[in-house]
């Protein structure tokens, strides 16, 4: 026993200094696509009976496990990723415990589809942060959309909760959920040639590489942390699309934003400015090459200035550059972008102009003098 004491002490020392469990990597959450199925003994038809029946998840309330060929009346319920999804009934929720890095920012991406209820919404929580995400507007012809939501980790382990706060006559009329993923966000730094952060939208939510659509960034309160931070989406119920170059035409880099729903949705960022100093705002706009054809208009606002950039889209991915010169009237200036038209594709889904490569610079010396003249 005495001879083993040094070995025991060494083991204890290693255990004490060993790093904590590593944070969850970017990508699909454990059983995030619900392909690990509950035991048959834990199912009553489609209803999940056990609180921990779905591997890696905990449920409460009326939760259904939706498989291949499952019907809602005469309609077959589609599943966007793999073969299975879940449905949350009235006041039902699903949750998962996550190992994270304390103080880090994360974005969660998941797919959702409404069923027989109309004005559906989801309450997404990682305590103490919580937001209601509206899902009543459908942006795909399949009925499934991918949503994003961001949070700051206050502890090294947090619980992601998605709750259906709706109350309908049929408890099985709740939304379908599938394909949960996570991504660590790295706050974009200022550069010497751009006063705006994340002007190229390269920092944003996780996009599934094998899903041929976008990720929606929903409207949030101005105090919340956005998946596109420091950009904010201001709207009542509408979102903007976050696109990647693998599936769409983007003007610059690997990502861009598509503005939807006309003036109902604004993309904004606040920036420090000097009163009386002239500035130049530049941006790229056009279409994503996704068949969004027609007259597209992006309007940019800053201080008392505004500019509208039209684009007659053929839906094939063309774009142009817009410029707005203005003089700051306060020590903080809100830069605002909106779409001035409501546009739909042939399948009836909303679309709009693409925004990318946004920059803001102060005008100095001869450039400022020319502007003031």
UniProtKB/TrEMBL annotation:
InterPro entries: DGR2-like_dom, Galactose-bd-like_sf, Pectin_Meth_Modulator. Pfam families: DUF642. Keywords: Cell wall, Glycoprotein, Secreted, Signal. PANTHER family: OS02G0527500 PROTEIN-RELATED, OS04G0494800 PROTEIN. Residues 1-23 form the signal peptide. It comes from the Eukaryota. It is found in: Secreted, Cell wall. Transmembrane segments: none annotated. Residues 27-183, 195-360 form the DUF642 domain. Its main location: secreted. This is DUF642 domain-containing protein.
């Amino acid at each position: 026993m005495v001879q083993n004491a040094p070995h025991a002490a060494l083991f204890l020392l290693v255990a004490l200094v060993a790093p904590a469990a590593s944070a969850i990597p970017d990508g699909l959450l454990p059983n995030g696509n619900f392909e690990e199925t509950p035991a048959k003994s834990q199912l009553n038809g489609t209803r999940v009976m056990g609180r921990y029946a779905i591997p890696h998840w905990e449920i409460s309330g009326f939760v259904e496990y939706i498989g291949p060929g499952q019907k809602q009346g005469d309609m077959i319920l589609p599943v966007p990723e793999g073969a299975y999804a879940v449905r949350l009934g009235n006041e039902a929720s699903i949750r998962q415990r996550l190992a994270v890095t304390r103080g880090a920012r994360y974005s969660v991406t998941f797919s959702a589809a409404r069923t027989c209820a109309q004005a559906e919404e989801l309450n997404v929580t990682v305590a103490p942060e919580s937001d209601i995400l509206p899902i009543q507007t459908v942006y795909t012809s399949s009925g499934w959309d991918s949503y994003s939501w961001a949070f700051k980790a206050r502890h090294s382990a947090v619980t992601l909760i998605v709750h259906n706060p709706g109350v309908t006559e049929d408890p099985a009329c709740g939304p379908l959920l599938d394909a949960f993923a996570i991504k660590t966000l790295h706050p974009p730094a200022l550069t010497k040639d751009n006063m705006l952060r994340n002007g190229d939208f390269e920092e944003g939510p996780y996009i599934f590489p094998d899903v041929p659509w976008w990720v929606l960034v929903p409207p949030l309160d101005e105090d919340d942390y956005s998946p596109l931070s420091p950009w904010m989406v201001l709207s009542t119920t509408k979102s903007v699309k976050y696109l990647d170059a693998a599936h769409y035409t983007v003007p610059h880099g690997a990502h861009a934003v598509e503005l939807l729903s006309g003036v109902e949705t604004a993309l904004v960022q606040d920036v420090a400015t000097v009163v009386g100093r002239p500035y130049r705002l530049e941006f790229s706009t056009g279409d994503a090459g996704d068949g969004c054809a027609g007259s597209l208009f992006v309007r940019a606002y800053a201080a008392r200035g505004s500019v509208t950039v039209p684009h007659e889209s053929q839906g094939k991915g063309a774009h142009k550059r817009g410029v707005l010169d203005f003089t700051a009237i306060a020590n903080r200036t809100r830069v605002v972008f909106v779409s001035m038209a409501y546009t739909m594709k042939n399948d009836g889904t909303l679309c709009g102009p693409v925004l990318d490569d946004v920059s803001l610079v102060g005008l100095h010396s001869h450039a400022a003098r020319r502007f003031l003249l």
